[in-house]
Task: structure prediction
Amino acid sequence: MRAPLSLLKSERPSADRVVPPTGFTARLTLLTAAAMAFLAVFALALSLATGRLANRWADSLARSATIRISAPPDQMEAQVAAVLAVLKTTPGVASDRVLGNDEMKALLKPWFGPDLPVDALPLPKLIAVTETSEGVDSEGLRLRLQGEAPGAVFDDHTRWRRPLVAAAERIRLLGLMSLVLIFGAMAGMITLAAQAALAANGQVIATLRLVGARDTFIARAFVRRFTLRGLAGAGLGVLLGMVAVAALPSTNEAGGFLTGLGFSGWGWLWPLIIPPVAAIVAYGATRFAATRMLRRIR
Amino acid sequence: MIELQHVAMSYGGGELLSDMSLSLAPGSFHFLTGPSGAGKTTFLKLCYAELLPSAGQMTLFGKDALAMTRDDIAGIRQRIGVVHQDCQFLEHLSVEENVALPLTVSRRPVNAPELRELLGWVGLKHRREARPAQLSGGERQRAALARAIIMSPDVILADEPTGNLDWEMSLRLLSLLVELNRMGKTVVIATHDLNLIRQAKAQVSARVLRIANRRLQHAGADL
Result:
């Protein structure tokens, strides 16, 4: 079996001409490849974006933690001071900061509105902790806080981080599965188009066999044609898909939900892999259809 | 070159040909006669392995037909030129391209002067750029003959080649086939035209075979 790339150059123009042009299947293959490649660009963009998002969430949440101190008002300052003292001697802590009343107000505003009397309420104190890249020994810190400040609870965001990262990973997997399904559907459609072309050319194939054509010669005439159509259609679809992705609203306009959907930097080169993959899919699908069909004609 | 020993051919539960034995020697000339539906075309299809025998043994150029691969069969067909009554042209190609088709599919170079000489020999030089649909019946048969011999095959099988032709055109085609036989080619013509056979026997030593009652018989002097 010759490599798909060798099909791109024809040894002899007349070898291609033995199969009459088939307008309908040509257009169908071109359109299918273009549509599937367009969708593949979006699936790829989604997959790459969720991958970046998962990394970002994992990275940023992994390096931050919160200590919540709930204590009677007369013990609050002492416990806060005790926690800060513990943090100063804890390896892996880059910085710590006690949240002020304004920050507490901002955090509670979505639930209680802007006029919350923070001073009058028995709210816990929050200390934001930033970790170094080595991270903090969470269990060790919890034990020390239990001894020094019984009202302090260490939250390293694990229970938030894990489902978020898992969700992002699953979306990425869905994107990759979508790509597989898209190429599978493309293979199915091109197989059908190739079968239609082969069936329509049954008499041509019989004549070619009569004059001594080998199966590889006949298959090659069809395979080359469909491979090039798959390549051209996918190229067009990728071009349109990249323009569409580039035209998506920017992060600021779209808000957080669509943050980062698209390609960034060298990531713009990834869609260029789609046309060759589509050509390989078309090559395989047409070869499969041609081999099956030719076995029926002696 | 082509040998059949007790060959039978069945299709759809019924036997079309029975107990056929024949050897086609190099340079021989054969007519195959018999009523319509006797199995002349089936016999020719056996000879170029479009059909395979259901019993008996058949060898094509020394190879067991039943053991041949598809590529072997393609190779065999490059040594056997076939002329069908309906010609089987690729209608989107010109006459010249159709005639050169066996060279194209076997990836051999097309020698343009030789191709034109061949077209001239069958009287179609002036029609080389025409499409098959633009040719008359006689022209189509002569183009089919040119295609059948362009690879210089050892055997030429013609299935009712004069079926759609007038007498004058039939004689012209016959003279081409006789000329090929004189060049050493084995020729088998399936026809029910006894006048054509008589005409040929005046020019060449031809063996006449008849298919009757599913069997191959050697025709006698009653022809």
